[in-house]
Amino acid sequence: MLKQGIDVQKISAVAKTVARQPRFVETILTPAERAVFAQRKGKHQIEFLAGRFSAKEAYSKALGTGMSQGLTWQDLEILPGSKGEPVFTKYPQSSFLTAHISISHSDDLVHSAVILESKNTMKTVQENQPVSRRRPAWLEISASALTHNIHYVRALTGTQRVCAVVKANAYGHGLAEVVPVALEAGADCFAVATIDEGIWLRDFGVTVPIFILGITPAIYTPDLAHYDLIPAVSEVNWLKAARQYLPKTEQLQLALAIDTGMGRIGFREPTALAEAIRLIDKTEGLELKSIWTHFATADGPNEAYFEKQLKQWHALTDDLPIADNVWRHVSNSGTSLWHQQPHPDMIRLGAAMYGFDPSQASLPARDLQPVLSLRAELVYVKQVTAGSSISYGATYKAKEDEWIGTLPLGYADGYRRALQGMEVLLPDGTRAPIVGRIAMDQCMVRLPGPLPEGTVVTLLGAVGDQRITLEELAEKAGTIPYEIATGMGQRLMRKVVG
């Protein structure tokens, strides 16, 4: 849970208030704050007072109470930390909220931002989610397949660095399961879609660089710096705002996104891009880490549009005044698998790492291995008579006496209602159909005979030389493999296998 509050005050206006109301300082500052105030001289005194005044207002806005609704100035105390940075040393609800603060000055203004975060870290929150570990239905993540895919694409491309893309709970495979395997396989850094995913990785213990591929509101600049996350920057106005929010003692690395034809985020004009680089260069605390783009058709046969984007990339970036140690990376999975690499610095490996065919068979096959399997045990087996109906809507009727098995998972686990009629694999590789509508928590399969309860059924994955693929599930559901994988429910137990 995150709450935010922002406040801006004119320093000169605060000075006038002090002149009119001598007790203003005692009203706003706690005794400990007044001791620091007394040590400051001249304008630094007023800047300190204005900063505390503004930050306390920002806290009240984040809390949603207002300073006149049960919250007093003396309830809040902000003192210099070990590096001189402002730190809340006293505030309401401190037992279950962590307060992050940023105070910055520009000309006659003081800008304050306060973010209140639940002390249940994202790691703890995830661990407390009701994962159904006592239910015999689970996802298997193959460590050997994931490792193979990383090594294969690294060798294929000759890249210097592999950035493992683990957004959306590692494409549904599970962050806690995928991240350690990816690190062991040699991933040099990670990419996520949101700041919260990045914070989760830091709380999980990840120390390598973490890129955020989506836009992060500038208000969260203090968190970006605190957790050492690298945000995507797409416009100069974001940079100007981030400068105001960045604590003076913090450093923030940045990744400039270039829109060469994806049409999603990124700089499109050379003048704005040049201005952004100048602004970064002249701002203490900001550092350009990378510059990148994303191809829209690298995983398909449309070579012309790929070449158009590549030409635009070179036109926008080749002559930029940036250091040699700034990473240039344009290769997603499709670019890595089917194109010559424009830059050796880094590839962003998402779909290919998980064994997906990003081209969906429209381009030559590559040696990728599927990472994900879905299995469940039969929890109930019965024989029904001819004419018996199965599940909601009575959409399936037995044509003869049949054996029906119940599996303990359904569309809430990501096995969609549209998969009615899809086949599953029995332990000997025999295919059996899902019958009746798939319910939220259960689905039924027509068995060739009275199999015992506890029999393992494979809904996705291999049994011997037989396999149910993500592509098959996606085709049946009328979607793409990515959507099936990322839709796998949080409550499904995930475990790493060899």
Overview of the molecule:
Substrate binds at residues 264, 440. Residues 371-497 form the Alanine racemase C-terminal domain. Pathway: Amino-acid biosynthesis; D-alanine biosynthesis; D-alanine from L-alanine: step 1/1. Its EC number is 2.7.8.7, 5.1.1.1. The structure is a single chain. With 498 residues, this protein is α/β, with parallel strands linked by helices. It folds into 3 domains: 2-118, 4'-phosphopantetheinyl transferase domain (Ribosomal Protein L22, Chain A), CATH 3.90.470.20; 137-354, TIM Barrel (Alpha-Beta Barrel), CATH 3.20.20; 373-468, Lyase, Ornithine Decarboxylase, Chain A, domain 1, CATH 2.40.37. The chain is built from 16 helices and 25 strands. Helix 1 (11-20) packs across helix 4 (43-63). The two termini are 36 Å apart.
**In one word, what is the shape?**
globular
Biggest sheet strand order reads 13-12-11-10-9-8-7-14
Average pLDDT taken over every residue: 92
CATH class of the largest domain: Alpha Beta
Q: Which structural class should the secondary elements be placed in?
A: alpha/beta
- Report the β-strand fraction as a percent range: 25-35%
CATH topology of the largest domain: TIM Barrel
Give the biggest sheet: 8 strands, parallel
Strand tally is 25
Our count of domains comes out at 3
